[in-house]
C-alpha cells in the first residue's frame, strides 16, 4: 500500500469498529484531493462521511462540539497551510476543554488530519510545516508518521486516544511511499519514539518525510566510518524524552532536522531539553539542520530545504568538533 | 460601394491604431475621449459615437433598486472589450500549454470564461479604485494595467515577473493600478478589502474597493466579519462574488444553504448580474460604485463560468458534464457575445475582428517568447524582502559556524 491507501485503511477500520465515528472535511465525500477517503462514503453512508463547506474554523469547531458529546470526530483540513483559521479553535477550545471544565467535558475524540510538507512545487501555501505552532499547546498531541505502515498504526492510535490529536501526513509520501501494510486492526503507541537505525557516533532525530533524507545522509556518513543512530520521534508532543536522552547519552552528539524554519521550530525544544539533561555528556553543540528562516519559497525550494548534503556536512562537523 | 470600402479601410486603420495596445504600458482599459479627441473621431468618419445597448438578463436586486437595463457604451468601448477579452483568453490558453510543458510549475488557476467580469468592471472603474481578489488573478492583473510579459514571467517564476518571480501564479500585484493581488488563502482577502476601503474613505480618495471572492469562499467566516465591519462604518467597499458555481469540485448547492450570494450580506444591499455579459457587468459596477460611495458596502454577485477546472491539476470534468461546459461555451461565451453585437451593429466586419484577433495572438506570442528568455531570480532573492531591508537577521549554514548569511 502507499501512504494514502494506508490512511484510507486506517479510517475504514476506525469507522468500522466504532459506530460513533465520523469523517468530514472539504471534498472527503468523493475521496478527497489525495484519495485518503476513497470508498468511505459508499460503505458508511453520508451521515458518517460527509463534506463540509470551505470553512476551516467551522470544521474544527464543529468537530470539537461533536467530540465533546463523546463521538470520534476525524476532521480533515485539506492542506496544513489552511489550518490557521482553525488555530483558535484548536488552541483555545480543543486543548483546554478538559482542563477548564474540571474534567467534566473533553474533546478527546477529535483528530484533525492535515497533509503537510514540501512536495517539490507547492510554493508558499501548499508546502508548509506548521507542527511547531501546535507543539506549544499543552492539551493536544501532535503525531507525524514516516511511512504507510506507521501511518496506519499511528492514525488508529490517534483516533482512539482520549486526547485531541493533530495528525500531520507528509504529502510527499502519499503516492511515493510503498510498503507492506498489514490489513489487521493494529495501533502503534503514541509518545513513543522509534530507533530506525542504531549507531554510536551521533544521534539524529527527525519525523515525517525528512527521515528519508536523513537516512540517505546516514548511509553516506557510514561510508566515512561514522555510525549514526536515527530516531523517528513519531509523536512531537508529548515526545519520548527518555529514549532520545538515552541515545544521546550513548553517542554524545545530536542533530535534529525538520523542514520548518529553524528559528522556533520544534528542533529548538529538543535541543534545549537535551542540553539541560546531557550537558556534560555532549561532545559537540547540538546541530539543527532545518528550513531557512524565510517564507516557503517558490523557485528557491531546493535551497530552502534541509537536503542530504546539508545534513551530511553537519554530521561531519559535529563528529569532528 | 467603393466609398463604403474606403470607409472600411480607413476605419480599420484607425481601429488598429486605437485598439492595439502599445507594448510599453498595455493598459487595456477602454479608451476615453481624452485619448482620442472628438474632432479626430469625426474626421475619421468613425463610429465612435455613443450608443445604448439593452442587456437581456434582468438584474436581481436585494434591498436596493436595480439600475436600468439600457447600458450606455460606444463602439470603441465594445471593440476594446473584444480585443481585451480575446487577449486574456489567449493568455490563459497559452498558460495552459506552458503548464503542460512544465514551464509553469506549482499551481495555476485559469480565468478563461470569466473574462467579462474583469473587463466589464474596469469599464466603470479608474485608477483611484482598488481591487483585491483571490488566486484566479492573471486577467485582473492585466485589467489593472499589468503587461503580458509581467504575467508570463511571473507564472514561470522569472525575474521580469510583476512580483519579481517570487510570487507565482497566485500572487500578482500592481501598486500603481491599485491591484492588491493575488491571494492564496481562500477568503483571507475580504477583510483586507474592507481595510483598503477604510483608507480610501479616510483619505477622501473618492474611490471604492472591489474585494472579490468566489462561491467557495462565500462560506468563510471572515467574509461576514468584513461585511459587518464595512456596514457598521459605512465603508466604500463592493463585495464581488464571482459565482462560477463550483468551489473547486463542489457545486454551490452542496456547500451553501443559500446560494443566493447577493443576499448573503443580509443588511448589505446586493445585486445579481449576468457575469458573462460585459455590458451588464459594467452597468452593475457603475451602479454599485455610486451606492458604495454614498451609502457604504454593496454586494455584487456575478453569474459566471470557468471552462478550465479549478486549477491545472483538475480536469474539470469529474464534477460537471462536458455537455454543460460546451453548452455554456456555445450560448454564453462573453467574447462571442461581443462579437455578435459588433457584427450586428455593424461596428466591425468579420475581417476587422479577425485582424484584432491576429494582433492579440501576436502580442501574446511575443510576450511569451520574451518571458521565456527572462532569467530566474538571483539566489540572494531567497533572503530578500522578508523583513524591511537592513534588519540584519542572520541565517546559518548547516554547521552554524562557517556559513552565515546576513539577511538584507
TrEMBL record, chain A:
EC class: oxidoreductase
Catalysed reactions listed for this entry: N(6)-[(R)-lipoyl]-L-lysyl-[protein] + 3-methyl-2-oxobutanoate + H(+) = N(6)-[(R)-S(8)-2-methylpropanoyldihydrolipoyl]-L-lysyl-[protein] + CO2
Pfam families according to UniProt: Transket_pyr, Transketolase_C
InterPro entries, sorted: THDP-binding, Transketo_C/PFOR_II, Transketolase-like_Pyr-bd, Transketolase_C
Keyword vocabulary terms for this entry: Oxidoreductase
Cofactor: thiamine diphosphate
EC number of this enzyme: 1.2.4.4
Domain Transketolase-like pyrimidine-binding, chain residue ranges per copy: 1-176
Protein name from the UniProt record: 3-methyl-2-oxobutanoate dehydrogenase (2-methylpropanoyl-transferring)
Record organism: Sphagnum troendelagicum
UniProtKB/TrEMBL annotation, chain B:
Location of the Dehydrogenase E1 component domain: 84-378
Catalytic activity: N(6)-[(R)-lipoyl]-L-lysyl-[protein] + pyruvate + H(+) = N(6)-[(R)-S(8)-acetyldihydrolipoyl]-L-lysyl-[protein] + CO2
Keyword annotations from UniProtKB, A to Z: Oxidoreductase, Pyruvate, Thiamine pyrophosphate
EC number: 1.2.4.1
SUPFAM superfamilies: Thiamin diphosphate-binding fold (THDP-binding)
Cofactor(s) needed by this chain: thiamine diphosphate
Group of enzyme by EC: oxidoreductase
Complexes and interactors: Tetramer of 2 alpha and 2 beta subunits.
Function statement: The pyruvate dehydrogenase complex catalyzes the overall conversion of pyruvate to acetyl-CoA and CO(2). It contains multiple copies of three enzymatic components: pyruvate dehydrogenase (E1), dihydrolipoamide acetyltransferase (E2) and lipoamide dehydrogenase (E3).
Protein name stated in the entry: Pyruvate dehydrogenase E1 component subunit alpha
Originating species: Sphagnum troendelagicum
